[in-house]
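Lab notebook page, bench 4
Experiment: in silico fold of construct C2
Operator: M.H.
Input chain length: 90 residues
Purpose: comparison with the prior construct
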Amino acid sequence: MYFMTINKIKPGVNPEEIGKVIPQHIQWIKEQIIKGIIVQAGKWGDSGGMAIFKANSIAEAEKISGEDPLVKSGLITLETEMFYPNVEIK
């Protein structure tokens, strides 16, 4: 199963605070891609980003995404939804 996490920077958060955590966040994303857990990830503008996860349940996807240093920082909101690809994701 696939899940999409939507991350949004919380109102009032200083961009410098986000910038301090981004290197660890990107490293964590790369590790999850190597493990085959994250299929794709990226950001939009300066307001947030998203990732597509492989997981057995929404609870598992939320647990995994909760390990992201950016999520742990408390600077962003996180929403997790089921994702139904129109084409096969390899």
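Observations: Residues 2-83 form a domain with the Alpha-Beta Plaits fold (CATH 3.30.70.1060). The chain has a mean pLDDT of 92.
Next step: discuss at group meeting.
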